[in-house]
Amino acid sequence: MMQTFDNYDYFDGKEIKHNQSITISDNKIASIAIASKAETKKGLIVPGFIDLQIYGAAGKLFSAEPSIDNIRIIEDQLLQEGTTSFLICLATNTPEVFRQCISVIKEYRTEARNCLGLHLEGPFINPEKRGAHVAAYIRKATLDEIKQLLDFGDGTIKMMTLAPELQDEDVIQYLLDNDVIVSLGHSSATFDQATKAYKDGVQTTTHLFNAMSALQHRSPGIPAAVFNHPTAMSSIIADGLHVDFEVVKIASKVMKERLFLITDAVTECNSGPYQHHATDGKFVMPDGTLSGSAMTMLQSIKNCVAHCGISLNDAINMATYYPAKLIKSENEIGQISVNAKANFVLLNEQLDIAQVFYNGEEIKLNKASAI
């Protein structure tokens, strides 16, 4: 079935193109051309958002209630928000919880829509920088444990956050050799240790500035190491609470296309080791420790534009093309281009969501904005 979106503006990854006609066929973008009519419809078509670190949505924290029904609920809610690709994240926990969650994702993957797999944030982190993670579950990895974990995961584990200063090199290399994206995070690594980790193949960094050695004038830490590296990437939480907007602005100026957005979003949860409670626009643990964000990916984009001096074009790329490049899927998702998946969001003049399309099919929105 062929479908055409005629006379719309769209973002092509570099600039906004006006009066365009986008044709979809077989769930992919078949063609893009100048529209035959001069009149442009109101609205901007952008790629579907990509969130490589999110814990739950719609009242379902996946690690607390790992089930196929709940991952479906999370998928549905994120599609409503324009997130057409995501990694469901697990914080440091018991091996039993990890296995339960992995088992669900393995069983569900043939039906999965926008869930691409798992991001394991821990347990192989530094307790000095644990943040909201449970100290009792943090440990050093062994190579045998990593082998068993990946064997059990059977390709569902796409990303892992760890502290490289506490892990053996053969553990990190095994992850890299098995196509797991390794992210430096929850770490006290020095500038030299972090620089070596990036040189040895660690591709990215988890929520820049949060739960890591600081950027100081005599001890430059992880932020300076990733700033100075030519290819290492980093995620950042642009809610103004985890990182001040002025610092997001600085990081964007330095890192450019190496910096991407995550929500790190959680949801209300009153059971298990991670009990997140919403207060004043953020989530905290029972002891008051700041945990995940209460933000959508679209709000991240808006914050970058409104508060961080980042152009709309760059902010869109930070939520789409840049994370797609990290997971080596930029030819399929993260951009509006011929042969890419027809995953895109139509924004109205206020940059609110008007329509969402996943694999060329329109997602029925609970509260659609009128264009």
Any overview of this molecule?
The chain has 371 residues and is α/β, with parallel strands linked by helices. The protein is globular, with a radius of gyration of 20 Å. Helices cover 27% and strands 25% of the residues. The strands form five sheets. It has a seven-stranded mixed β-sheet with strand order 3-2-1-4-17-18-19, with no helix packed on it. It has helices spanning 68-80, 95-108, 143-153, 169-177, 191-199, 221-228, 245-255, 297-307, 312-318, 321-326; strands spanning 2-11, 16-25, 28-34, 44-47, 49-54, 56-57, 60-61, 83-91, 115-121, 157-162, 181-184, 204-205, 234-236, 259-261, 277-279, 282-284, 344-347, 353-358, 361-363. Helix 8 packs antiparallel against helix 9. Strand 2 and strand 3 (28-34) form a beta hairpin. The protein has ten helices and 19 strands. It folds into two domains: 2-46 and 334-363, Urease, subunit C, domain 1; 49-326, TIM Barrel (Alpha-Beta Barrel).
